[in-house]
Specification:
The chain has 3 helices and 3 strands; from the N terminus they run αβββαα. By secondary structure, the protein is α+β, with helices and mostly antiparallel strands. It has one domain: Metal Transport, Frataxin, Chain A. Strands 1-2-3 form a 3-stranded antiparallel beta sheet.
Length: 81
């Protein structure tokens, strides 16, 4: 199993946008970005990405869980299989 790389917030957001996520309506000031998408089962998925130069691997795994994206699919979209 390939290890997840340490990525910046802009790289993670770029991949999530490619997966069909959109910026959520303005949720006030803060150090996080909210993205949303209607999931396969019809419910709304909300993903929160912290604004950081480097997002830790554990945080990235939590983001992938929220987005219901597998590690393999994420790495494929990142181009690092």
């Amino acid at each position: 199993m390939t290890r997840l790389p340490v990525l910046s917030d802009t790289e993670v957001i770029r991949i999530l946008l490619r997966l069909g996520f959109q910026y959520a309506p303005k949720r006030g000031k803060g150090s996080h970005i909210a993205l949303c998408k209607v999931g396969k089962s019809g419910h709304r998925l909300l993903v929160i990405v912290p604004k950081r130069k480097e997002i830790p691997r554990g945080t990235l795994m939590a983001i992938l869980e929220q987005a219901q994206v597998s590690r393999e699919e994420f790495l494929r979209l990142l181009g690092r299989e």
